[in-house]
From TrEMBL:
Broad enzyme group: hydrolase
Organism domain of life: Bacteria
Taxonomic lineage from the root: Bacteria, Pseudomonadati, Pseudomonadota, Betaproteobacteria, Burkholderiales
Cofactor: Zn(2+)
UniProt similarity note: Belongs to the peptidase M1 family.
Alphabetic keyword roster: Aminopeptidase, Hydrolase, Metal-binding, Metalloprotease, Protease, Zinc
Protein name per UniProt: Aminopeptidase N
One of the GO BP terms on file: proteolysis
Domain Peptidase M1 alanyl aminopeptidase Ig-like fold as annotated: residue spans: 453-558
Length: 889
C-alpha cells in the first residue's frame, strides 16, 4: 500500500470546520476498567463552513452510551456513526450536544487519550488523543473554553487535576470526592489534560513581573519529592527569562508539572498542566548526570514557552506543526544558552544543537521520509513529530533572527502576538509578522517551509593582490526528495569572516560601500549563484564561512589541511573553530575507512593524522578555553555522521577506522589525558552548573580515551573513578569505560550498579542503554537482556533504553553481516505495533535509509522491511514508515 492514495491527508484539502465549539463541559467518573465521560458542547454554525452537518470524530475504543441535542435524545436515525465519525446532518445554527461515552483506561496501552500508569490516571491528547475520550471535532482550529468536573475514589485518587484554575472541590459522601477546574482561555482539544492518583508535590509561590503571584507545583509519585528541585528552579528561570527576553508573562494563577513513567514523548504543554516523562523532571546528584540536568532545564523551558507559542497562538492544522514546535525549540535553545551565560558556553550549546541536526535531521532530509518543515501530506500525524519539524524548524526560525537581528526578531514576535493571540494560524502568518514588523520582503523565505532536503552551498574564492579585492562566489543547489524533483533557490543567510596571516579578523568592506566595516557579515544568498566582493584586503585571507552555522546547509569549500589547522587555532568564531577540527577529523576518518575496506595498512592511510592529533593536544592543554569547549573539540565525529559522508555505507569499516583513531589519539596523548583527568577533578558538593559540568565533561572524555588503551593502568584508573564517584556523571562515564573494555571488574561493576539502583527506573534505563550500545554487545546479548526481570516492553522508556539503543546507537553490531540485527528489529517493531503504534513507528525509522548500504546488507534490510509490511493488523503509524521506505521514489 502506498501513502499517496486517498488515505493520505493533504494540506491543500483544508476546509473550515462546519461548526465551532464555544464551551466544553466535561464530567469524568474515573474507574480503571470503566470510566464514564459526560460531555456538553455548545456549538454554533461556522459561516465559513461548507454544510450544516455537525462532524465529530471518535476512536474504535470508545463506546457511545448516549447522545442528546438541545435537551432531546437523538435516535439512531438522526445521526450516522461509521469509521469513527459521528455525523449529525441538517443540524440547527446553534446546538447544545450532550455525549456520554465509556472507556477502559487500564487497557489503553497506546498511552494516547486517557490511560493508567502505576495506578494513576493520565492523559495525552496531542495530536489526536482527545477522540479516544469523547466524540469531538478533534482538530487544532476548533478552540473553546473548558470546565472539567473530576469524580473518583478519594483513597485511591486523592489528587484530581485538570487545566486552568481550581474552582471547587469537596466530598461526595460515598467514599468519593470531586474537583472542578476551569480554564479561562480558549484552547484546542489537544491541550486538554487530566491527572488523578496518589501524588505529592513541591510547591512555591512565584512573583511575576506585573505584581501578581502564581502558585507553581511539581507533582510526582511518593518517594520522588527529593528529585524535583531542579525542575522547579528551571520553571522559575523559564518564567523570568520569557518575561525579560520576549515580554511574555504567565497568564494563569497556577502552573503545574506532573511526572509520569509511562509516556510516549518527552513532555506535553497542556495549558497550565504540563505532563512530563519522568526523565525530564526527576534529578538529584545520585541518579542524574550533567546531561540530565541540562535536558530537564531545556524541556521544562520548552513546555513552559509553549504557553504562548503553541497555546495562546496555536496551529490552524497539523501541517503547521513547526509553527509551534520549531519556534519553541528555538526559544528553548536560546534560553539554555542564556542560562550558561558565557560566549563560549553559548557556542557549546550551539555546537550541541548542530550535532543533533547533522546526526538526525540531515539523514532524514536525504531519506524516504524527507518532508518539508510544513508537510504537504501525511497518513499518520504522529509520524511527523520529527527532527525536521523540530530541529530544522528551529533553524528556520533562527534564520529570521540572523537576517533581522535580535531587535528585529523581537519586533516580529510582538506583532505576531498582537495580531494572533487566541487564534489558530499558519506558518505564513508568522512569516508575515516578521516581514511586516521589519519592512522586509520575505516572500522567497517561504521556500524553507515548502521545500524538503538539505541545501548545499558551494563557496569559491579569488584574491586579486593588485586591487586588494577578495571575491567569494556562493552557489546553491538542493537534491531531489520524494515528490520534489526540482528545487527553487532558497533565501540563505551565510555569515562570514576573513582572517589575516596572524589569525586576526579583517574589516569587511563591500565594494563601493563606505559604511561601517564589521568583522562578521551576513551574506544573503538568494540566487543560484552570487558573487560578493570585499575591498581593502591586504594579503590573501583564510575565509571563515557559515559562522555560527547561520543556515541548515551543507557547506562545500576546498579548505586545505593547513587552512583547517589554522582555523582550529585562530578562528574567533568558536563554532567554526570546532567545525574546522571536525572537518579535519572527518577527512582522516574517511581515509582510514577506505583503507579498512581495501585491507591496506592504516598507519599509511592518513599521513596528516599526527599533525591533527598535535592540534588536539594544543586545544586540550589550552586552559584559556572553557573545559566544555575543549570537550566538544576532542570528540570525534560520530559513526552516523561519517556514514552520511559515504556514497555506500559500510558500518564495520567506519567503526574500525574510528576505533583506530581513538586508540591512536589515546596512545599519543596519554600523559596529557591523564593530566586532564587530574586537573579537572571537581571537589566539594556536586553542582550541575556549567563550569563544573564542563570540567567533568573534559575529564570524562579524557578518561574514555584512556580506556581505549584497554591495559592494566587504564583499567585501574577507570575502576578507581567508578569506586569513588559521588555523582552519576562520573559513575556512568567510568562504567562505560569498563563495559567497553576487557577489564576483569566490569561484570562485577554492572551487577553492583544494578543492585544499588534497582529501585530507580531512570537509572536502570541507563544500565540497559549502556549495555545495548556497548561494542561487545551482539543480538543474543540484547535478547538475554530482554528477559531480565526489570525489562518491560510496554514502558516506552525501557523499550527505548534497550531496543532503540541497540538498533540506533550500536551500528557496527546492529548491522551484523548475517542480518541478525535486522531480524531482531523486525520482531520488535511487530511486537511494539500491537502495544504502542507510535513507539513502534519510531523504531521502524531505523531502517528507512536501507538503500544507502552495501548490496548484501541492503538486501537483508529490505527483507526485514517486507516482513514488517506484511505483518497482520499493522497500524497506520508503522505502515506509513515501511511503505515509504520500500517505495520507488
Amino acid at each position: 500500500m502506498r501513502t499517496d492514495t486517498t488515505l493520505a491527508i493533504r494540506r491543500s484539502d483544508y476546509t473550515e470546520p462546519n461548526y465551532l465549539v464555544e464551551t466544553v463541559e466535561l464530567g469524568f467518573d474515573l474507574d480503571p476498567t470503566d470510566t464514564r465521560v459526560a460531555a456538553r458542547l455548545t456549538l454554533r454554525h461556522n459561516p465559513d463552513g461548507r454544510a450544516n452537518d455537525i462532524v465529530l470524530v471518535g476512536d474504535d475504543s470508545l463506546e457511545l452510551v448516549q447522545l442528546r441535542m438541545n435537551g432531546k435524545p437523538l435516535s439512531r436515525r438522526a445521526y450516522r456513526l461509521a469509521d469513527n465519525e459521528l455525523r449529525i446532518p441538517n443540524a440547527p445554527e446553534e446546538a447544545v450536544l450532550e455525549i456520554e461515552t465509556a472507556l477502559k483506561p487500564e487497557a489503553n496501552t497506546s498511552l494516547m487519550g486517557l490511560y493508567v500508569s502505576n495506578g494513576n490516571f493520565f492523559t495525552q491528547c496531542e495530536a489526536e488523543g482527545f477522540r479516544k475520550i469523547t466524540f469531538f471535532p478533534d482538530r487544532p482550529d476548533v478552540m473553546a473554553k473548558y470546565k472539567v468536573m473530576l469524580r473518583a475514589n478519594r483513597e485511591q485518587y486523592p489528587v484530581l487535576l485538570s487545566n486552568g484554575n481550581l474552582i471547587e472541590e469537596g466530598d461526595l459522601g460515598d467514599g468519593r470526592h470531586y474537583a472542578l477546574w476551569e480554564d479561562p482561555f480558549r484552547k484546542p482539544s489537544y491541550l486538554f489534560a487530566l491527572v488523578a492518583g496518589k501524588l505529592v508535590c513541591q510547591e512555591e509561590r512565584c512573583a511575576l513581573a506585573d505584581g501578581r503571584e502564581a502558585l507553581l507545583q511539581v507533582w510526582v509519585e511518593e518517594g520522588n519529592l527529593d528529585k524535583t528541585q531542579h525542575a522547579m528552579e528551571s520553571l522559575k528561570n523559564s518564567i523570568r527569562w520569557d518575561e525579560e527576553r520576549f515580554g511574555l508573562e504567565l497568564d494563569l494563577d497556577r502552573f503545574m508539572i506532573v511526572a509520569v513513567g509511562d509516556f510516549n514523548m518527552g513532555a506535553m504543554e497542556n495549558k497550565g498542566l504540563n505532563i512530563f516523562n519522568t526523565k525530564y523532571v526527576l534529578a538529584n546528584p545520585r541518579i542524574a548526570t550533567d546531561s540530565d540536568y541540562a535536558n530537564i532545564e531545556a524541556v521544562v523551558g520548552h513546555e513552559y514557552f509553549h504557553n504562548w507559542t503553541g497555546n495562546r497562538v496555536t496551529c490552524r492544522d497539523w501541517f503547521q506543526l513547526s509553527l509551534k514546535e520549531g519556534l519553541t525549540v528555538f526559544r528553548d535553545q536560546e534560553f539554555s544558552a542564556d542560562m550558561v551565560g558565557t560566549d563560549s558556553g553559548r557556542a557549546v550549546k550551539r555546537i550541541d544543537d548542530v550535532r543533533v541536526l547533522r546526526q538526525a535531521q540531515f539523514p532524514e532530509d536525504a531519506g524516504p521520509m524527507a518532508h518539508p518543515v510544513r508537510p504537504d501530506s501525511y497518513l499518520e500525524i504522529n509520524n511527523f513529530y520529527t527532527v525536521t519539524i523540530y530541529e530544522k524548524g528551529s533553524e528556520v526560525v533562527r534564520m529570521y533572527q540572523t537576517l533581522l537581528g535580535r531587535e528585529g526578531f523581537r519586533k516580529g514576535m510582538d506583532l505576531y502576538f498582537e495580531r494572533h493571540d487566541g487564534q489558530a494560524v499558519t506558518c505564513d502568518d508568522f512569516r508575515a509578522a516578521m516581514a511586516d514588523a521589519n519592512g522586509r520582503d520575505l516572500t522567497q523565505f517561504e521556500r524553507w517551509y515548502s521545500q524538503a532536503g538539505t541545501p548545499r552551498v558551494r563557496a569559491e574564492t579569488r584574491y586579486d593582490d593588485a586591487s586588494r579585492i577578495y571575491e567569494i562566489t556562493l552557489s546553491q543547489s538542493c537534491p531531489p526528495t520524494p515528490g520534489q524533483k526540482t528545487k527553487l533557490p532558497f533565501h540563505i543567510p551565510v555569515k562570514i569572516g576573513l582572517l589575516d596571516a596572524q589569525g586576526r579578523d579583517l574589516p569587511l568592506v563591500f565594494e563601493g560601500d563606505l559604511s561601517e566595516a564589521p568583522t562578521t557579515r551576513v551574506l544573503e544568498l538568494t540566487e543560484a549563484s552570487q558573487t560578493f566582493r570585499f575591498t581593502g584586503i591586504f594579503g590573501e585571507p583564510v575565509p571563515s564561512l557559515l559562522r555560527d552555522f547561520s543556515a541548515p546547509v551543507i557547506l562545500e569549500y576546498d579548505y586545505s589541511d593547513d587552512d583547517l589547522a589554522f582555523l582550529m587555532a585562530h578562528d574567533s568564531d568558536p563554532f567554526n573553530r570546532w567545525e574546522a577540527g571536525q572537518r579535519l577529523a572527518t577527512r582522516h576518518l574517511l581515509a582510514l575507512t577506505r583503507a579498512v575496506q581495501e585491507s591496506r595498512p592504516l598507519e599509511e592511510a592518513a599521513p596528516g593524522v599526527a599533525t591533527f592529533i598535535e592540534s588536539l593536544r594544543a586545544i586540550l592543554n589550552d586552559t584559556t578555553l572553557d573545559a566544555a569547549f575543549r570537550e566538544v573539540a576532542l570528540t570525534l565525529p560520530s559513526e552516523g555522521v561519517l556514514a552520511e559522508e559515504m556514497d555506500v555505507i559500510d558500518p564495520q569499516a567506519i567503526h574500525a577506522a574510528r576505533q583506530y583513531l581513538r586508540r591512536m589519539l589515546a596512545r599519543t596523548l596519554r600523559n596529557d589525558l591523564v593530566a586532564a583527568c587530574n586537573l579537572n577533578a571537581t571537589t566539594g558538593a556536586y553542582s550541575p552548573d556549567a563550569a563544573s559540568a564542563g570540567k567533568r565533561g573534559l575529564k570524562n572524555v579524557a578518561l574514555l580515551y584512556l580506556a581505549e588503551l584497554d591495559d592494566t593502568d587504564s583499567h585501574a584508573m577507570t575502576q578507581a573513578q567508578y569506586d569513588r564517584a559521588d555523582n552519576m556523571t562520573d559513575r556512568i562515564a567510568a562504567l562505560m569505560g569498563l563495559v567497553n573494555s576487557s577489564a576483569p571488574g566490569k561484570a562485577d561493576a554492572l551487577e553492583r550498579f544494578y543492585t544499588e539502583f534497582e529501585g530507580e527506573a531512570l537509572v536502570i534505563d541507563k544500565w540497559f542503554s549502556l549495555q545495548a550500545s556497548a561494542r561487545t554487545t551482539h543480538v543474543p546479548d540484547v535478547r538475554r537482556l530482554m528477559k531480565h526481570e526489570a525489562f518491560n516492553l510496554k514502558n516506552p522508556n525501557r523499550a527505548r533504553s534497550l531496543i532503540f539503543s541497540f538498533c540506533n546507537a550500536n551500528p557496527a553490531r546492529f548491522h551484523a553481516p548475517d542480518g541478525s540485527g535486522y531480524e531482531y528489529w523486525a520482531e520488535q517493531v511487530i511486537a511494539l505495533n500491537a502495544i504502542n503504534p507510535q513507539v513502534a513507528a519510531r523504531l521502524a525509522r531505523t531502517m528507512d535509509r536501507w538503500r544507502k548500504y552495501d548490496r548484501l546488507l541492503a538486501q537483508l534490510m529490505k527483507k526485514a522491511l517486507q516482513r514488517v509490511a506484511e505483518a497482520p493488523k499493522l497500524s497506520k503509524d508503522v505502515l506509513e514508515v515501511v511503505t515509504k521506505a520500500l517505495a520507488d521514489n
